[in-house]
Specification:
Length: 69
Amino acid sequence: MEREEVQSSAITSVGYDPLSEVLEIEFASGAIWQYLGVPEAEHRELLSGSVGKYFHSQIKDKYPENRVR
């Protein structure tokens, strides 16, 4: 999945596939996680402000996740 770089101390890049509703996040640690069933509106909101803060409050532990790397 293609990801775009973001301004965050914890998150390096974010990608999203609207057809499968998969959000992919690369963390500063190098780990890559996919979050399943994430609506496109959540992806837009994630990128509209503090990426790390939004991730922790609205994405983490709210959607099924898979570690890619």
